Amino acid sequence: MWDxxxxxxxxxxxxxxxxxxxxxxxxxxxxxxxPVFELRQVAxxxxxxxxxxxxxxxxxxxxxxxxxxxxxxxxxxxxLQRVPWVRGIALRRQWxxxxxxxxxxxxxxxxxxxxxxxxxxxxxxxxxxxGELPQFTGPEGTAGEISTRFAVFGDALQRAGLTLxxxxxxxxxxxxxxTTTVPALTIALGRSDVEERLSRFVAYYARTVGxxxxxxxxxxYADLRYRNGFAARVPGFKERAVKKAA
Length: 246
Hints:
- This protein has about 250 residues and is of the alpha/beta class.
- The chain has 2 domains: about 35-105, Ubiquitin-like (UB roll) (Roll), CATH 3.10.20; about 110-235, Rossmann fold.
- It is built from 6 helices and 12 strands.
- The strands form 2 sheets. It has a 9-stranded mixed β-sheet, covered by helices on one side. Strands 1-3-2 form a 3-stranded mixed β-sheet, covered by helices on one side.
């Protein structure tokens, strides 16, 4: 090869090309780390009512390292997702030194068990909230199912003039509802045919439990776990003993 001018020229060209590529790579690596490309502006976008934009910007500036080209957006996104009330985050670089942060907030639907909230998508999240919300109680992983049932049960009860304030799902799959009336009416639905049972209760409510309420007698508990009817419990009511025939 050493006495072949053509091969030597090809080798020299390849070495020169490799050197040029390494030089360009080094220059580019140096350039993208220069202060001129440092992040200078963070723009927070989205209809925000609970998240503080200044707090989000502080999280971004604390988490992001590097310049426009080298900053790791995944790390910032992960940190922003942990901010209370933040449901979704989208990040976009904008030349030459701007980062746009698009935020989606949780919209609370109900309280979940003892220390969390449920959003309108049936997702559990943790945040402080002082307002009035319905109460959901159930095993882990059932918030989505309870959210769906809440809408169905709530619509049914509204036809009887009642508002659903609490819904419980037991570990065995039994459903129990509680209205916002004073005193509250607790409705035991059981595990099967729950929508059918509730529809039957609503259909007869005005002539039974509703009639008692209008007369001044409040029913606090209704057990719908019967095939063709339901049982109601009236506070203070004592069943009279039936005399047996002689």
